[in-house]
């Protein structure tokens, strides 16, 4: 018999799979590995650091883009005095702590605003080479680190001037909570900026000050580790085929103090799409580290009985598996091997001993046929054997085996370790959902403020060109709008409107414009298009020197949706003051209401002003058989969108959290599915190579004993069934040869009186053989 043929290999494989699944079940359903915190808490810190890195990278890239675009726009027009350049730049953007214009030929400072910018770092490498005019980090005399962004002002009739803008490296300005801290680390692990340690001034007890000193020490140590890991290639740090964050990110576990363990997530600054667009911030080698001390959660006492629990479940599987294998051995394997031996014996001419006929199934039908053939071939023994037919046969044995194994698979997969709305969710997960939602709201608010600031800057450039006059003023305005649209993909259309804004735009770039409503009480950033397929988000800025003229930019909804797409937050929506959806990270209808009364109440509660303003809220919703974590964060802070009334609402099912109850439920479902896969594999194998060929063979054997000697029996497999087929084919050939010889003798004339030839020994194909047994 071949190695993978016959009845033995699938039964042996079934035994191996049952034992392997039993061992796996005992391990995964037993006591888990003792960790300082659930994996969900660790993953949440990694997501938090990634969100901070994305926000910081976008902020730095936006500064570089704004400065370069402003310099190109100024260089394409008439020369402007340095003081005017810095004044317009300061009025349009409030993101730089200091700005300076330097004459590149003489090195003199032509104009300066804000804090003093040291020029000792300026050298030839700033203006030439592969890293020319790229952002650089410079340390001031005070010890603070500043990010220097540079651009060149180039007019035909004047020497080139270098425009320098200085800004601080800071983490997103959000509420980190009473315990979380964030830091920005350089390549060597040096901490350049921190947030969250400011509460040191309010500490009153020595215990609190000791804990703060512990956290500062942990932040320094973990920042060194994070900076070292950030040097690795981002592809090699991820599993094959995984996508997610484009940079290097992960988690770190620090030391313990006073029952708390320091957990940290880190993420390097990386381009959103490194293959299509390079990021200036990604080349700085910065890493964002988020640190959170969590209470140690030891599950050892709760899991002491889990070992016996897992062994009991696996023991039941082994017991049912033994019964299933015994059924297959008794009803399929043993009768088939008996048929194999009996058919080979009869084919070799041993017709004296009766055939041992199995009791049921296809084997019984084939055994009965063999016995009738033995009797017809002249063997001595018991009398005629009745035909045995079975409607169940081998398929019934497989069904019984499957039922025995399903007695374990179905309860384990569908009933064991099931969770409901009583699952205990760590408070850290609720707080992280709230803080990350607030971080997304802050990022969205900053993006809209940047969009409005770009419009203000562009409007000032348009006003400056209009004040100088000239025949090509309209053409220059059109070129400026197209350049702004190309530089900032957040816009879908840019256009100049005059008067009431209902007429044709004075200049435009991009898609079709929408009506711009006028009114003193209307905010500069507004939403319209209610009833359409998607909202129309507009931002406007008046053009200086041109009364009643406004530069309007329509912001793409897809741009806002992309800012909301973050793993580990679930469904995220942006709603207006009326609670209607404006943007979301998944499928939604424009201006639809929030799903569920709880989310509507949460959004309204978050928009209520308390003290200095509205605050973010988190909520744990227990309803039915599930648990949902939700959060709402209103727009707060500076800029024109601070009072817009938008709120970011997020929710996700707690089943996605990697906490112990849900992990055990997932493992139970996995064990049941693996058992079901083993049933389908092994029993399907037996059905294909044994049961189905055996049923066909039983029908062929019955036709053979009924007189069908013309149908040739071909063995399809080199196994036990194939051996029985070969034996029956030999018997068919013997019977066919005898019928042909008998027909020839009956056609010969009567030889008359005299001696006749010897008819031959008993048991051979004699002259009196009748295939029907008569």
UniProtKB/TrEMBL annotation:
Keywords: Membrane, Transmembrane, Transmembrane helix
The keyword Membrane appears for this protein: yes
Entry annotated with the keyword RNA-binding: no
Biased composition (Basic and acidic residues): 230-241, 518-535
Domain HAMP: 330-382, 688-740
Record-linked InterPro entries: HAMP_dom (IPR003660)
Renumbered residue ranges of the record's region Disordered: 230-250, 509-542, 737-774
Source organism, top-level taxon: Bacteria
Residue stretches spanning the membrane: 308-332, 669-690
PANTHER family on file: LYSOZYME-LIKE PROTEIN-RELATED, METHYL-ACCEPTING CHEMOTAXIS PROTEIN MCPB
Protein name: HAMP domain-containing protein
Species: Streptomyces amakusaensis
High-level lineage: Bacteria, Bacillati, Actinomycetota, Actinomycetes, Kitasatosporales
């Amino acid at each position: 018999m071949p190695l993978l043929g016959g009845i033995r290999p699938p039964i042996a494989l079934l035994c191996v799979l049952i034992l392997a699944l039993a061992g796996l079940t005992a391990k995964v359903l037993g006591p888990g590995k003792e960790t300082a915190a659930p994996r969900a808490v660790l993953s949440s810190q990694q997501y938090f650091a990634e969100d901070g890195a994305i926000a910081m990278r976008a902020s730095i890239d936006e500064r570089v883009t704004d400065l370069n675009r402003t310099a190109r726009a100024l260089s394409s027009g008439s020369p402007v005095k340095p003081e005017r350049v810095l004044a317009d730049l300061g009025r349009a953007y409030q993101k730089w702590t200091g700005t300076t214009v330097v004459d590149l030929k003489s090195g003199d400072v032509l104009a300066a605003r804000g804090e003093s910018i040291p020029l000792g770092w300026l050298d030839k490498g700033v203006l030439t080479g592969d890293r020319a005019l790229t952002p650089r980090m410079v340390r001031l005399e005070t010890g603070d680190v500043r990010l220097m962004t540079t651009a060149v002002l180039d007019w035909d009739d004047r020497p080139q001037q270098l425009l320098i803008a200085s800004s601080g490296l800071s983490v997103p300005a959000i509420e980190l909570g009473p315990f979380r801290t964030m830091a920005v680390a350089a390549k060597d692990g040096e901490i350049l900026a921190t947030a969250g340690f400011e509460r040191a001034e309010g500490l009153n007890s020595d215990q609190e000050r000791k804990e703060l000193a512990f956290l500062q020490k942990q932040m320094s140590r973990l920042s060194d580790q994070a900076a070292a890991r950030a040097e690795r290639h981002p592809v090699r740090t991820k599993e094959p085929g995984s996508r997610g964050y484009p940079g290097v990110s992960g988690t770190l576990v620090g030391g313990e103090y006073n029952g708390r363990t320091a957990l940290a997530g880190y993420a390097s600054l990386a381009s959103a799409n490194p293959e299509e667009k390079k990021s200036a911030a990604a080349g700085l080698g910065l890493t964002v580290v988020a640190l959170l001390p969590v209470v140690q959660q030891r599950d050892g006492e709760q899991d002491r009985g889990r070992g016996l629990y897992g062994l009991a479940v696996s023991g039941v599987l082994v017991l049912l598996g033994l019964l299933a294998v015994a059924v297959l051995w008794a009803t399929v394997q043993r009768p088939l091997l008996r048929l194999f031996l009996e058919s080979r014996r009869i084919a070799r001419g041993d017709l004296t001993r009766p055939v041992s006929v199995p009791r049921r199934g296809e084997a019984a039908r084939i055994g009965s046929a063999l016995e009738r053939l033995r009797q017809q071939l002249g063997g001595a023994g018991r009398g005629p054997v009745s035909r045995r037919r079975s409607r169940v046969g081998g398929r019934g044995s497989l069904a019984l085996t499957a039922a025995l194994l399903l007695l374990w698979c179905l309860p384990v997969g569908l009933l064991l370790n099931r969770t409901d709305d009583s699952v205990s969710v760590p408070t850290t997960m609720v707080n992280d959902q709230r803080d990350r939602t607030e971080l997304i709201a802050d990022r969205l608010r900053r993006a809209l403020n940047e969009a409005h600031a770009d419009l203000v800057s562009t409007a000032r450039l348009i006003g400056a060109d209009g004040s100088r006059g000239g025949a090509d003023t309209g053409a220059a305005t059109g070129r400026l709008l197209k350049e702004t649209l190309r530089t900032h993909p957040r816009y879908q259309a840019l256009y100049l409107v005059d008067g009431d804004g209902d007429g044709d735009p004075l200049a435009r770039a991009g898609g079709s414009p929408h009506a711009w409503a006028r009114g003193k009480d209307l905010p500069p950033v507004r939403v319209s298009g209610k009833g359409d397929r998607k909202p129309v988000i507009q931002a406007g800025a008046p053009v200086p020197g041109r009364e009643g003229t406004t530069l309007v930019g329509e912001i793409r909804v897809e741009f806002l949706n992309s800012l909301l797409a973050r793993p580990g937050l679930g469904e995220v929506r942006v709603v207006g003051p009326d609670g209607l959806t404006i943007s979301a990270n998944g499928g939604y209808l424009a201006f639809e209401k929030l799903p569920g009364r709880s989310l509507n109440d949460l959004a309204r509660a978050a928009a209520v002003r308390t003290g200095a303003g509205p605050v973010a809220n988190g909520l744990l919703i227990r309803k039915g058989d599930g648990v949902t974590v939700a959060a709402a964060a209103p727009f707060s802070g500076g800029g024109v969108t601070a009072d817009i009334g938008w709120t970011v609402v997020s929710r996700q099912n707690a089943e996605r959290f990697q906490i112990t109850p849900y992990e055990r439920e997932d493992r139970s479902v996995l064990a049941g599915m693996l058992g079901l896969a083993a049933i389908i594999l092994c029993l399907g194998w037996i059905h294909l190579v044994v049961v189905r060929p055996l049923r066909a063979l039983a029908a062929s054997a019955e036709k053979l004993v009924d007189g069908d000697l013309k149908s040739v029996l071909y063995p399809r497999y080199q196994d036990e069934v194939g051996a029985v087929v070969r034996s029956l084919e030999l018997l068919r050939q013997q019977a066919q040869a005898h019928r042909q010889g008998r027909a020839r003798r009956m056609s010969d004339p009567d030889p008359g009186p005299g001696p006749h030839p010897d008819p031959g020994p008993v048991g051979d194909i004699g002259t009196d053989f009748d295939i029907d047994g008569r």
